Amino acid sequence: xxxxxxxxxxxxxxxxxxxxxxxxLAAEGGGRVLVSDLDPLAPARxxxxxxxxLPAVDDPDYGPLLAEACAREGVxxxxxxxxxxxxxxxxxxxxxxxxxxxxxxxxxxxALGCQDKWECHLLLGARGLPSPPTWLxxxxxxDTLPYPVLLKPRLGFAARHIYAAADRAELEFFRAYSPAxxxxxxRLGGEEFSIDCLGDLDGTPIGAIPRAMLQxxxxxxxxxxxxxxxxxxxxxxAVVAALELVGPSTVxxxxxxDRILGVTDINTRFGGGFPLPLAAxxxxxxxxxxxxxxxxxxxxxxxHRAGVMMTRHLDQTxxxxxxxxxxxxxxxx
Length: 333
Description:
5-stranded parallel beta sheet, Rossmann fold, single chain, 17 strands, D-amino Acid Aminotransferase, Chain A, domain 1, 11 helices, 3 domains, Dna Ligase, domain 1
């Protein structure tokens, strides 16, 4: 029997996650980390054990071809590393299951709801979870909104096209300026936190690690610290349980004192701050490998180490054109 493989889609720059899954597979008896990405120079391609050629995510054959690759390559688990394809993977779950792999995303309606800011607001409210007051622009009374407010894309990433409006005039300006279909959301005070969560294959929470957002650039955390915070652990677990979030997710929220003001984002994938909860004892990749292999996993809510800090820096992979194409420089020396 071939070694089991984990497939990470749209892997891009996430060398940290590729390496972590390599370590997890080694700890569970061996296997391969495979990646897919359209960019021939995507750094993750050169850190993985192999790659799977897939079309663009808007190709109607994306799901079927991914399932075929799973069957061909002995893939046991599939995870998205960006917001480009969680919904597509969720929709392709029957094909992926038939190919012998498990896909670590929630059901399609939830996967889409977590990406769409308006649908996410409705999902949270329907389940009794805190969400900031949110309006569709054409249905909001601009004279009575509780300024300051944020204009946010319904489907956005990397903090693009988010604008703060102090009054009606600014809101009207940004509505005309933004190219994205948007929502209006009350700008929350207090302090922002992220909670790195993990749900099992039934959407039961098995991990929730809160971290303070010490510094971010372009929507991605570059400095942070893990926290001993029961309230945030419970909030993360409640979101996972209420939405039945399968696999990794990142819950972002604001809190003022001991009062949760609202959950502002849910990403159904690993967060940008992935190395921090990993270093704090949240070995989510190994838990995912065990689940993909049908092995038991025990819940570890609140079992992480607090006070672990991360400060990020630049790194790179040096490539050269060799006899087999573009390869890491060390491979052809």
